[in-house]
Amino acid sequence: MVKDTVATTKDKKPLLKINIDQLVKKAQDSYAKKDQGLAKQLSTGKTISRSTEDKDYVMWNGGDHWKSLTSLKGLPFGRIVQISGKPDSGKSTHAMCFMKYAQDAGHLVILWDSERKFSAKRFDSKMNGRSEELVVVDTNKIIDGAKAVAQFVHAAKELDPNIKILIVWDSVGASLNSTEDREEEDYSQQPGVSAKENSYAIKKFNKLANRYMNKATGEETIATLIINQTYASIGMGAPTQIEKGGSEIYYLSSVIIQLSRKKDLTRVKGGDSYKYGIVSRAKVKKNHLFEEDESISEMDLVVSADGIHLAKDVKSFNDIKGWDDEEDTDE
């Protein structure tokens, strides 16, 4: 039996009558010096690869699970990443961890807190974050929130054109469209209105990333993390969890990690039962940035007051640092 072989690029004879490398260089040379970053967007297929440099990510510095799930070092600048799931599954804890890691790297963090549940105490004392360096948009209106985030970005870029920014929207499901606070509501139009306004918001963040790409170097400077809820889609076959907010948010998210809580972790103290964490299942719902041959599609995590841990590494509550008896774990 003859084994099939795949010809490498070196084995293939060129079919075009023009030199591709010369074509790309000629097109790149048409850009001015100040736009060399834009010129770098012109290339050949063989040169396209995902960056492995730390500077191109809001790095995840809390263990191995993020890279195992996504093959990425963190949140890529210039992209939109979504973490979705049911309540109390670890979504906001992931967001707070990324916010802390972004601050550690000297990036500006803009939190759109549409759920109005951000805890400065937990962020500062458990995550070692700096709430005084965090800028917050405190509204649950979709259009108002998106515009306010953009105003923060524009102002920050005026003060420091090179500053890198992490935008966190927590959450899509808690954000209201422009008709939901009216006395007379047409409930039949609500999903459509929300989808349109969520589309406006997510496209606005995409435009901000494009606008503030460094045109001289081609370096991206804005990363966006979206926290979202899911609902059960009942139809033919087994029920599946679908992200809220409309199709645009799904399409424009390069990566979607879906979380589901499996169980509470408790211990008995003084005759009372105390919750010190949860076990959550992390599943890769979508990953358009993956380039490897295989990856872990699901894994179990322990979520506690101080962050995220691989479930296999946690044997008891003593393995979780920063937990105390007086404070419960949030999602």
Task: Tag the structure with descriptive keywords.
331 residues; alpha/beta; Rossmann fold; 10-stranded mixed sheet; two-stranded antiparallel ribbon; 26% strand; disordered C terminus
What does this structure look like?
With about 325 residues, the chain is of the alpha/beta class. The chain has one domain (about 30-180, about 185-260, about 285-295): Rossmann fold, CATH 3.40.50. About 25% of the residues lie in helices and about 25% in strands. The chain has eight helices and twelve strands. It has helices at about 20-30, 35-40, 65-70, 90-105, 120-125, 140-160, 190-210, 245-250, and strands at about 55-60, 75, 80-85, 110, 135, 165-170, 220-235, 240-245, 255-270, 270-285, 300-305, 305-310. The strands form two sheets. Strands 3, 4, 5, 6, 7, 8, 9, 10, 11 and 12 form a ten-stranded mixed sheet that branches. Helix 6 (about 140-160) packs parallel to helix 7 (about 190-210). The longest helix has 22 residues, at about 190-210. It is globular and about 80 Å long. The model is unreliable at about 320-330 (pLDDT under 50).
